[in-house]
Design brief:
Elements lengths: L4 E5 L2 E5 L2 H8 L3 H7 L2 H15 L3 E5 L4 E3 H8 L3 H10 L5 E3 L2 E5 H28 L5
Antiparallel strand pairs: 1-2, 2-3, 4-6, 5-6
């Protein structure tokens, strides 16, 4: 089959490419692409082209501006009760829509990035400790 298969789900699109599509992706002039679109978009498209050229699968998704607590918990890979505790503690801002709690996607993504940075810092500290103590596993 020489056609690109597109699977459209709720909020995301998955592209699985053929050998022909991968060859076409390798032939794209990324410098010309960068001059034709905004830099942020060029960066994303260049990465998509690299993955497609390598024969990989790319999934593009969209995130609504406002999330339910279930969606936010899924994005953070935590349980909903843990998320509610973070909201009560003020770690993640939220607001009520009627009796329902909602979160801004930007706030959830910012919290996720803060947590990832804390994890990276802890890992760097652990590696430094291992190096200082000459620990080799």
């Amino acid at each position: 089959m020489n056609a690109t298969l597109t699977d459209r789900g709720v909020g995301k699109t998955t592209l699985t490419v053929t050998d022909t599509a991968a060859a076409q992706a390798r032939a794209v002039d990324t410098a010309a692409l960068a001059s034709a679109v905004p830099p942020e978009l060029a960066s994303i498209l260049t990465e998509v082209m690299r993955i497609v050229a390598a024969g990989g699968t790319v999934t593009l998704g969209s995130i609504p501006d406002e999330l339910t607590t279930t969606n936010a918990a899924d994005m953070l890979d935590i349980s909903r009760p843990v998320l509610m505790k973070l909201i009560r503690c003020g770690d993640i801002p939220a607001h009520k829509v009627g009796s329902r709690t909602r979160l801004r996607a930007g706030d959830v993504l910012a919290y996720r990035e803060r947590m990832r940075e804390q994890q990276r810092a802890a890992f760097r500290e652990l590696r430094a400790f291992e190096d200082d103590e000459s620990l080799d596993y």
